[in-house]
């Protein structure tokens, strides 16, 4: 395939069957390989759409500073798009995200501002909002509330899935900004009545959440619970175990959040088997495993890896 | 066999510090009533007159019961129920904020 430039190659990722992880011939799993995007994650779609929309809206002029709270992938995607389109980029990210992400961001020329680990992504959002208030000329695209994030998936990921898997019965993805689930979910619901939209939410250990007040919960503005059919909370140990299964059984070297999506997908597959129903379940491989090597997620026993991952963000 | 119920640190004062306890019942509601007999006060931290408390999440085999049948969700031997406080980025606030199926 030939494209005029790197940005033109965003999307149109492969959908591959997972014959060894699928429970039967009637209940099949399919993986949407979003690591095959220009910077290696699903976030390239949202970054491209958000920047395009901001340009259309006249928010971005050459040399503008883009500001974004991000635990990594969105920042890397935005930094790449910013570099190609002539903008500068500042990321606010929790200090406990992996070093590979920092190195990538720096390579793309982004400035990094760390936010305290204890608050996770919520704290990054708070710090970014503060910075935006202090620098009115900076442009915060704000992936958690930017309709172009969900629209990227409504206009591209959703149609790609339906074209490749017209009989799709379930769509499973990680729950972060909710952009992927909202966009794909709305598109599929319009074209596949009865389709199930399944969220896989990371469940971190108490080291990450600390002793935070429980009513400080943050809900992305994009989130509309009515789009979801159900939601899973996936513990780090299960996400890790499934990430390793993806590699061992199917040869897919994925990031840890993809293991979380597989965990939820297998639960839905189990239900379909128990009910004697046919199912074609598509799940999102949000990124590859490269950026997580330093977390120790792939070496040693599962419990060793889990111990090393304690206190780190993996999605 | 019984149903394993995993208890978050913040509620372990009701379980003598135990990380998980066992109970029985045909629904989540019955299970919580069964637990209350041995762990007095626990149920009241999870449930109020309106159903599951806003900042509490309960998962049946990792699946949010708010999207299943709430307190009427059927449970059976061998299941694992996980109770979590809704923390930052957690889903109790999401459930409360969204228009999802109410418990």
Kindly describe this structure.
The complex is a heterodimer of chains A (315) and B (103). Chain A is 41% helix and 17% strand. By secondary structure, chain A is an alpha/beta fold. In chain A, the strands form two sheets. Chain A has a six-stranded mixed beta sheet. Helices cover 22% and strands 24% of the residues of chain B. In chain B, the strands form two sheets. In chain B, strands 2-1-7-5-6 form a five-stranded mixed beta sheet, covered by helices on one side. A two-stranded antiparallel ribbon of chain B has the order 3-4. The termini of chain B are far apart.
Number of E strands of chain A: 10
Shape of chain A: globular
Largest sheet of chain B: 5 strands, mixed
Q: Count every helix of chain B, treating DSSP H or I runs of 4 or more residues as helices.
A: 3
Strand content of chain B: 15-25%
The geometry of chain B reads as: globular
Helical run tally of chain A? 10
Global structural class of chain B: alpha+beta
* Protein structure class of chain A: alpha/beta
> Pair with the most extensive interface?
A-B, 31 and 28 residues
